[in-house]
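Changelog-linked ticket: N-oxalylglycine example.
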Amino acid sequence: MEVERVQAIASMFTAKDGIPAEFVRSENERPGITTFQGPVPDVPTIDLRDPDREKIIREIADASQEWGIFQVVNHGIPDDIIRKLQDVGKEFFGLPQEEKEEYAIKPESDTLEGYGTKLQKDMEGKKAWVDFFFHNIWPLSRINHNVWPKNPPAYREANEEYAKYMQNVVDDLLSSLSLGLGLEAGVLKDAVGGDDLEFLLKINYYPPCPRPDLALGVVAHTDMSAITVLVPNEISGLQVFKDDIWFDVKYIPNALIVHIGDQTEILSNGKYKSVLHRTTVNKEKTRMSWPVFCSPPAEMVVGPLTQLVDDQNPPKFKTKKYKDYQYCKLNKLPQ
Ligand code: OGA
Ligand code: NI
């Protein structure tokens, strides 16, 4: 069965045509109606090179508690490493459709890796205005280079370099998050698998959409990961739900956007919030983003950290293997 790529659909429609009905969201989801109009708060931006370590830890903990999302600058990943990651991703999506299809995720396969478009419609019977590519970038034992794009030729090196720098950033964030809970620096990282923590890269490709007021890219969700570290291109579109309103996250060149995911919310027994977010699309421009989902290995058992639980603070979440959490969430079963 041929899968219809959003990129191909987008090339056939103009504002005059509108968009296919299966992309028109119900009114309670439409960004044109539900995006807050007026002054909105800024997601906190944290400078990781601040000499005051205590201050960084406090800012990260506060942002994770109140928002579940923050941006970081001076994070140590050189600008040109980010630019190369973005250039090769853009080049891949610019390849002829037949060439991209060589990497298509096979419906019968049990792997998440490869080129894809959400096949099934969601609960509302609607489709998302986005194509994507998934592949693991860390640890080495989880990398399958056969599923990575071979074209452009620089793809592999650009992604390997990015993954190398990303490890330091993630270690640093996890240790600050751990200290922010009043625990020793290494506790949180150990709880998500230590050096077996897995980095899954996703490239989101949101083609221009003639009716951005009616469609959504990724629909409202929280990430299953422990944390997600994302770089967007310069087109804004990420929206966060806070205090009952949806609003745009501001684009800051070369900043990384850090999402607290479900596993960190669980481990912190609800102190840190897994952020509800979604994406809108743009009328003229292609939006792209590169989230790295940092998740425990499948067999890792995750639950509220025992150090944070006592008679006054009973566990708010079940303890289970990450793969069981994933299964329930993907199949919309209760946790
Ligand atoms: C996601 C996601 C946000 C973005 O893919 O899980 O939330 O900015 N993407 O593209
Ligand atoms: Ni997400």
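Closing comment: Example verified and attached. The chain is about 25% helix and 20% strand. Residues 202, 204, 218, 223, 230, 232, 238, 277, 279, 289, 291 surround N-oxalylglycine (ligand 1) (CB under 6 Å).
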